[in-house]
Specification:
Helix content: 55-70%
Number of strands: 10
Number of helices: 21
Distance between the termini: 48 Å
Low-confidence stretches: 1-18, 626-640
Largest sheet: 6 strands, mixed
Radius of gyration: 37 Å
Strand content: 5-15%
Length: 640
Amino acid sequence: MMGMDGGRRLFERETLKPKDLGETLARFGSYFRQHWPGAVLALVLISAQAWTQVVTPELIGQSVDCYLFPRDPANCWFAQISPDMDEEARLLGLGGLIVALLGITLAGSALAGLAFYAMSWTGQHVLRHMRQDLFRHIHRLSMGFYARNEAGDIMSRVTNDSDTIEQAFSFALMQVISGVLIIVWIMVRMLETNITYALISLAIVPVMAVATLYFSNQARKAFRQARLEMGTVNADLQESIAGAREAQAFNREDESIADFERSNAANREANIRAAAFTSALSPVLEALGFVALAIVVLAGGIAVLRDEPLLGGSAISLGTVFAFVAFSQRFSQPIQQIAVLWTNVQSAIAGGERIFGLMDEDVEITDRPDALPMPVVEGNVSYESVGAEYVAGEPVLKDISFEAKPGETIAIVGPTGAGKTTIINLLPRFYDVSSGAVRIDGHDVREVQVESLRRQIGVVLQDNFLFSDSVLNNIRLGRPDAGDDEVIAAARLVAADSFIERLPEGYQTVLGERGSGLSQGQRQLLAIARVALMSPRILILDEATSSVDTRTERLIQSAFERLLEGRTSFVIAHRLSTIRNANQVLLLQDGQIIERGTHRELLAQGGAYHALYMSQFRDEEESTPVPGNGRLAESSAGAC
């Protein structure tokens, strides 16, 4: 299946590239800098909430050394310590300490809520800007990019990868920052209280760090693969839904289901592998936390029972042991919390890498720094020794030269793959030439602003896209400022008004996805009405009447005769009716013009065009009634 193969190629391309974690985090930081007040407020609130977590163990230690078993000297906040303190003073001081602990705990909860709101507010604004930049960049990418990449994978980056970042920004990132602050703050306070005891208590930290780095790095790789596999699943899903009719017509439902099951299974395995590393980290850290707690209790207990310093350090009080036990518990909790939430952070980093990777895709069609707006064109178009290639070293067009004067119609014919569509794609700069030049009124199309160029070129394709919007808005796509009367006039010009008026709500009818509910011919008529409303000086018709019946085609041709008057047009068609009256016919083969002239001239030459006519067009011409008398058209010789 194409989606699966494309996703696999994408996976190989992305996983082979070295990943720069620092660069990804720096790019996230550049977005946060745009909303620095919210980010600073969130950091202040997170820091204050972390302080409440650090100060609580200190107050627990003070409850022992200051009131339960008074010890002089002792660092007490609310009392002057004296071994002969009476019971009432101790109870009063202990009550005040309990009230302080309660107040700090409540303040910590309130600060956590405010920090969550501030972080979510900032994260949502950051994510909105990221999505805007990504969506803007997607619209600037050339047609070549969309030919190489599946729509489903691009959608996955905009939706699924953005969702993982949103989850991290809303909660996980705040908890990780808070956890890091608590860990560092606790280490500092432990070292300030008793360096020797702190170093013994923190002996297990290097082991925790190694375990965290190993499992988190493995999880990050697994989550990056999981995000890529999700892109493949989306690409397969989008392709299967879009091609549902073909799958049913050719009895390929079982094969499509099997292909989707394979990509879905790959996504499952990638997520299971990521979950395995993530789930392993938490119990490992929990076990190491218990080991750290045992070390704190054992070392501190020995020092208190013997009433002597540890390894020549300062003396240890019972309150210090209680404080270090609480420190150790508070130290292990954020590490375990980070380990659990690191899943979201790692997934967000992987999603960020994919989003930034899409943002880094080169925009192949850009305005030059000195590009000027395209003046109002007269319609003189010239191709000067034009060459084009989609893949370097594999030319699609070779030395194409011709000129179209204002008001002329150029018909381009030839076998499939000859390069017909490539020729017209160069005119509005959907692609750029690899050699030579395409000029309009003497202006190289690469030297003018793309927007001003395309505004003056109307394009009707074989398969036109209609949006899930009203008929009116679909027709006014090229002229958003057009009034309703102008839209209706354009629809009447191309004979689309008759079927539009039969729709449930007429011109206000909202179409389904890609114009579902309309026939192919009706969709084509709406696309032609778009161009009629634009009234451009240059028209490109790529099989513009290939999907309509003969009667509708005659109506369209009649409308085109009025529409094309005074305008330069390029017509790609396999129907004789669309090229018989062309001022010039170009016959392409293998990317080269092998014959050129009018329809009659080329038939008279008896060359390749004559052979094409005899094999493809003659039956069509002989079966077409002559307007006015109902008789069949004359034979080819008579028609010429």
